[in-house]
Amino acid sequence: MEYSLFTKLAAEFFGTAILMIFGNGSVANVELKNTKGHHAGWLNIAMGYGFGVMFPVLMFGAVSGAHINPAMTLAQAINGMFPWDEVLPYIIAQLLGAALGQFIVYLTYYPHYKDTDDAEAILATFCTTDADNKKLNYFLNEMFGTLVLVFGALCCLMDPWGEKDPAAAAIVVGFIVWGLVTSMGGPTGPGLNPARDLMPRVLHAILPIPSKGTSRWNEAWIPVVAPIVGAIVGAWLFKAFFA
């Protein structure tokens, strides 16, 4: 069935919020002091992000397509796979959802933010940075990671087997994210999603967190622009070879 635009936007809003709760919530559990998951490790974070994408796609894929990512929305529109008149509403819903999800993470981990004096650990629960402090590496990692994500997701969700069994396709997409975080996530986090990085960075800047340090706005454009570039190429590859 065809859903109203309002229902689609609600799906994008709640789907992106769930992504943040599972994804950045897992980072907070690992990085912040005195949590029961403190130092649980990178696989805990990768699993959180994998589930953070898998569940919204299962829940809302049939409603809105579960883009939950402005880069995915723009890439599909630029490649003629999504209507342009819905792009801005989708992106606004995704940005607001990311803000809500991050704020929920902040509220649930509030005592641990107060206990943590490591500014880098605090920042990691909000947004991405490059481990080697190199902007070129930052850009390339986010670009290629998003390219693989979008190409893989579209192959799963839009190929005949995925359209026949969308639940199985959604589960595979979750594993793609899980695998990407374990394989290509070391340099930057990764973000792979402008909403997932930009809105939490805004909250990091305005929330009263002791020892939070800088929000690193001088590099904030990279995890916004690079995923969009990678997503456009990934969607083009899918359309050119497999659509």
TrEMBL record:
Transmembrane segments: 9-30, 42-66, 87-109, 143-161, 168-186, 220-242
Main location: membrane
Gene Ontology MF: a single term: glycerol channel activity
Keyword annotations: Membrane, Transmembrane, Transmembrane helix, Transport
Database matches in InterPro entries: Aquaporin-like (IPR023271), MIP (IPR000425), MIP/Aquaporin (IPR050363), MIP_CS (IPR022357)
GO CC annotation: plasma membrane
Bilayer topology term: Multi-pass membrane protein
Domain of life of the organism encoding this protein: Bacteria
UniProt similarity note: Belongs to the MIP/aquaporin (TC 1.A.8) family.
Protein name, as recorded: Glycerol uptake permease
Source species: Bifidobacterium parmae
